[in-house]
Structure formats: structure tokens, C-alpha cells
């Protein structure tokens, strides 16, 4: 889920609010390189926007190098320009993907991560 508030009464167009929201989350590290984002239709329904509005934001984000579309696989957060951050982000994204495939919840994921960092026992 990509929870980005859009103020329908703002003078800033909704596509621009969405574009800026995604960029802000990428800069903050909330959206790491390699993170899959919702389809245009799914995000449009979630945010109650027209699909063309979301499509425009995605196109502009792709032109800005923030998103990359991988055909039928979908759209993903692209490289941030920092190879260390990108590698860490992709590793984190892959870790979450594995945890989800295994059917584990977020608490278990954090326990295993803390154990790997030497902070506690995953038991």
C-alpha cells in the first residue's frame, strides 16, 4: 500500500501531490530501491483518483528516474543514486519478500532481523 494523502481542495494538482509524496518517501528511505508500488488502477482506487491522474504521476516519476517499469512485472522504485543505500534497500525488499512467502508476520521478521544483528534470539 502506498499511503500518500491527496488534498482534493489544494491548488497543487493531485498528480503533483502524488509525485511529490512518492519522492518524499524515497528520500526518507520509507520507499527503498526495488520496492514494488501498486498498479495505476489499484492506487487510483485507493486514493480515489482518476487512473489518468496516477498514470501521469507515474510517467513523470519514471522520467525523473524515481520509478522504473518492468513490463508486466509492474513499477518499482528505481535507484536512489546512492549504491550503498540501493543495495541495502534491495536486500531489505528481498528479505520482506522471503518472509511473506514463508507466511511469517512482521513481528517474526523483526525478531529474525534482530537476531541476525546479534541483538536477540529469534526463538
UniProtKB/TrEMBL annotation:
Alphabetically sorted, this entry's keywords are: DNA-binding, Transcription, Transcription regulation
Please list the GO terms describing molecular function. DNA binding; DNA-binding transcription factor activity
Cited Pfam families: GntR (PF00392)
Domain of life, per lineage: Bacteria
Which InterPro entries has this protein been placed in? Tscrpt_reg_HTH_GntR (IPR000524), WH-like_DNA-bd_sf (IPR036388), WH_DNA-bd_sf (IPR036390)
Q: Which CDD domains match?
A: WHTH_GntR (cd07377)
PROSITE patterns tied to this protein: HTH_GNTR (PS50949)
The HTH gntR-type domain covers which part of the protein?
12-80
Q: Write the protein's name.
A: GntR family transcriptional regulator
**Which organism is this entry from?**
Nocardia otitidiscaviarum
Amino acid at each position: 500500500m502506498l499511503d500518500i494523502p491527496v488534498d482534493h481542495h489544494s491548488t497543487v494538482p493531485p498528480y503533483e501531490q502524488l509525485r511529490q509524496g512518492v519522492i518524499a518517501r524515497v528520500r526518507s528511505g520509507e520507499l527503498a530501491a526495488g520496492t514494488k508500488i501498486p498498479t495505476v488502477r489499484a492506487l487510483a482506487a485507493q486514493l480515489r483518483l482518476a487512473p489518468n491522474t496516477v498514470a501521469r504521476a507515474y510517467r513523470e516519476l519514471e522520467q525523473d528516474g524515481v520509478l522504473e517499469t518492468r513490463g508486466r512485472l509492474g513499477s518499482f522504485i528505481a535507484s536512489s543514486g546512492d549504491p550503498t543505500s540501493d543495495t541495502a534497500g534491495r536486500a531489505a525488499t528481498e528479505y520482506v519478500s522471503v518472509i511473506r512467502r514463508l507466511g511469517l508476520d512482521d513481528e517474526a521478521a523483526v525478531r529474525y532481523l534482530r537476531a541476525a544483528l546479534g541483538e536477540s534470539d529469534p526463538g
